[in-house]
């Protein structure tokens, strides 16, 4: 029995540390730049307006206060997005579509199991969180949260700022944005989210000759290589970091982003 539990602990630890690679799912790498269709994300915006609150460095979700009607409205919003084939949209609309979809699904998963102390408690017996679970079907394809982030968003857009856009319902994560993404505001929101996170203690906390960085920068270091690496990327938003020559450590808080 002890050996069994030891194996389980090792299995879970390995899965925590082994972040998924960016691997393109070719099916989704299509767009129609001539399509001027605009997807409404107003239902998601209404949810954010009602249930997000900022405390210190964190933007928190008041899960306990979400009404039954708003839970159903969120599910209807997801059904609305699932009825759209995003490949017919232009890339700017697609990016907003996938980010909002990811974040809304994550909140919906938490609400279905609330109260829960951490998103890592969701998923199957041997799962560290729900990211590998089938969560939605779009254009005849069944997707997981991992698919959306690591097989669509990361490889198609190759923008490391995507890590500041998708939210994993945890305190260590970049905050869930108070605005829904759309084709017009995505770039500004990404820069704002990056600057906010990097200038917070959960992004990088410097104490003397030691800096504790978010584990995001360890898990996905390769995504920042095109910008000269993690520290070069961080320095764009926090210039004094460029002079730091001390020891680097990594940390991440998986506690639920709950109010």
TrEMBL record:
InterPro entries: DUF547 (IPR006869). Keywords: Signal. Pfam families: DUF547. Residues 87-198 form the DUF547 domain. Residues 1-18 form the signal peptide. This is DUF547 domain-containing protein. It comes from Vibrio qingdaonensis.
């Amino acid at each position: 029995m002890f050996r069994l539990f030891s194996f389980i602990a090792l299995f879970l630890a390995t899965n925590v540390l082994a972040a998924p690679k960016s691997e393109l799912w070719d099916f989704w790498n299509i767009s129609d730049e001539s399509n001027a269709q605009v997807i409404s994300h107003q239902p998601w915006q209404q949810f954010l307006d009602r249930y997000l609150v900022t405390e210190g460095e964190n933007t928190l979700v008041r899960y306990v206060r979400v009404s039954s009607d708003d839970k159903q409205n969120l599910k209807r919003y997801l059904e609305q997005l699932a009825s759209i084939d995003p490949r017919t949209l232009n890339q700017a609309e697609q990016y907003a579509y996938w980010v909002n979809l990811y974040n809304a699904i994550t909140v919906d998963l938490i609400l279905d199991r609330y109260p829960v102390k951490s998103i890592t408690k969701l998923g199957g017996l041997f799962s560290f969180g729900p990211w590998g679970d089938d969560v939605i079907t779009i254009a005849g394809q069944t997707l997981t949260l991992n698919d959306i982030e690591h097989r669509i968003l990361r490889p198609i857009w190759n923008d490391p700022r995507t890590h500041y856009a998708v939210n994993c319902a945890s305190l260590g994560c970049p905050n869930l944005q108070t605005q829904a993404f759309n084709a017009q505001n995505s770039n500004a929101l990404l820069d704002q989210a990056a600057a906010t996170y990097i200038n917070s203690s959960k992004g990088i906390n410097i104490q003397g000759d030691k800096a504790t960085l978010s584990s995001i920068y360890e898990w996905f270091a390769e995504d920042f290589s095109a910008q000269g690496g993690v520290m070069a990327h961080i320095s764009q938003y926090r210039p004094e970091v460029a002079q730091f020559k001390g020891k680097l450590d990594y940390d991440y808080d998986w506690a639920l982003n709950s109010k």
